[in-house]
Every structure is written in C-alpha cells, then in structure tokens.
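Archive entry. Fields below.
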Amino acid sequence: MLKNIVVFIAIFLYSQTVEAQWFKNSFKVMGTQAHVEFWLESNEAKQDKATENIEQHAQQLISIVQGEMQRIDEAMSPYKANSELSLINARAGTETLKITPELFHLLQVSQKISRLSKGAFDITYASIGYQYDYRNQQRPNKSAIKKALSAIDYSAIKLDEKQSTVHFAHHNVKIDLGGIAKGYAVKRCLALLKEAGVTHALVNAGGDTGLLGDRHGRPWLVGIKHPRAAYKMAVELPLENEAISTSGDYERYFIEDGVRYHHIINPQTGDSARKVVSVSIIGKDPTMVDALSTTIFVQGLVAGMKLIDSLPDYEAIIIDNEQTLHVSKGLQQQ
Ligand code: AMP
Ligand code: MG
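PREDICTED_STRUCTURE:
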C-alpha cells in the first residue's frame, strides 16, 4: 500500500489571492483499483504559504479517502478472517449476533433490494458463491450446487433493528457484500470530501464511480468498458453529481468448454447469470446503483429494464449477448 503512486496534476491557476489545483491519487483496496480526484482552492493571501497548505490539505484528503476505503474493507471483506462479515458468517447460523449500525444498515439495504427484485439480488448467494475460485478455475459441481441451494434465501437473514442484531434461520447460510460494498465505500468517501468543503470530486472503486459537482465548468466523462475488448470503451457519458456502477461478466471469470463462469451468480440456479454481458446503472446514490447493477445483471434485459423503468431515480445501459446496447426510458428522452 505504501508503494502507492501519488500523482499531482498540474493545473495551476495563479492569481494574487486564490490558488487552485486538481489532485489525483490511485491505490489498491477491496481487491480492486481505486481512484480519487478533486479540485482544491486556497484563499490564502501569501502564495508560497498557500501552495504548501493546499498540498498538505490534498494529502490529508487523500489519506482520509484511502483510510475510509481500507476501514470498510477491514469490516466487510470475506477474505479477512477477523472482518465483521467473517464473524457473522462464522456465527450467525447458530446464534444471534449484535453488529455495528453500519453493517446492519447495509444488510437492511440488501434485504430491500432482494425484495424489490424478488431475489435476483441476494447476498446469501455466497452460500454457493464461496465454492467458486475464478483464479484457479474451480467451480462447484451439480450436486454441491443442489446441496447449497436451500441456503440461498435472503428471507433466512433475520434482522432486529432495535437490537441491531442478525441471525440466520438456516445453519449453512453465508453472506457476501461484494455487490454493494464498493458503492457504499464510494458514497462514504464522497461524503467525507464534501464535509471537508470539496465541491468537485470523483471517487472510483472498480466498476463504481461517484461524482461531486462537475469537472469545473464541464461534465465529467465516465466510460463504460467494452465487455469484450479490455482497453476499449463501449460508451463515454458526460455526468455531474451522479453515481454510476457497471457490472460485467469480464471482471472475474474463466471459460470452460466454451462456457463463461463469472462472479455474478443467479441465486435461483447457483450458476453464473448469462442473460446479458454488461449493466450500468446511473443515479444519485452510489450504494443503490452498485446493488442495482448486480441485480439487473441477474435479471437480464426484459425484467431488468422493467424494474429500472419503474424506479424514477435510476437509469440503465445494458449490453446484451449480441453486444447490442439498450438504454432505459429516461435516457431515451434526452
Ligand atoms: P458487481 O461487480 O457490483 O456487479 O458485484 C459483483 C459481486 O457481487 C460479486 O463478486 C459477488 O461478490 C456479489 N454477487 C454475485 N452475485 C450476486 C447476487 N445474485 N446478489 C448479490 N450479490 C451478488
Ligand atoms: Mg454491483
């Protein structure tokens, strides 16, 4: 982590009293690449002092963003034995556990999207999900899937809001927040930057991007990756004050006998969802767009568009198996 490269960009606007500058930083966290970019202004009268202060201030903000993402990773990673999520997975099948309000909140949001999508989004997908190992090209066989399917059931997660507790009504239930935690981390980081007085910022973690304001007089340009050409963009969108999340079958996968096994699982079958290849959701709330991109990916074009068109605050761009691009009604009107 210490080897992170800090890139300070070079747009200096000198005047007698105001100095302003873009700052950028990229780092690895939550098993992915994260990126932050923001505009800082200093109203100090003395220019030299201002430069020192603005750079110190930028470093501070970068540390806050990195620290926040790392903190969320420590709590929610399934790969860290001591994370709160791992503790829940180890014990909530047999006892009622008190959990932090933060994790409780994310479990509640996850339940809400599960109900909204009739189980297309289901964090208990992990009851089978943990038997996939994409790096080593391992997948569960049919009988392992069959055995695990009864533990894929979001209604088995019992939440008590007053006590802030969780209990799994089925012994073998496991949960995973990979479909929602990065969006939440982006949301938290944007809130911290805003609190610090920043008005133009971009925070990205993997396929999740959140924007504060515009890119100083012009919109931010956010790309949606081409699903079958690693370094190409399928689309670039001018956005401001929005969040966008993309779920794609090219992020973590292996191909066996011509079949693509990837990280987004249809909870009904325990197998990878294959109705579409890429789903991007645009809206104000980074947590929601993250969860919805995973949801719509599982639902596919017809049911997915129907759900998005019923939600006035969210729009979708879906790329189907023939690599045709489809956009939701709200985007067609623009
Ligand atoms: P994203 O990249 O946001 O689409 O999220 C993909 C991640 O969501 C996967 O790596 C899993 O951690 C998790 N996931 C996979 N399938 C589901 C599902 N059906 N419901 C909720 N989370 C899922
Ligand atoms: Mg997602």
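CURATOR_NOTE: The mean pLDDT is 93.
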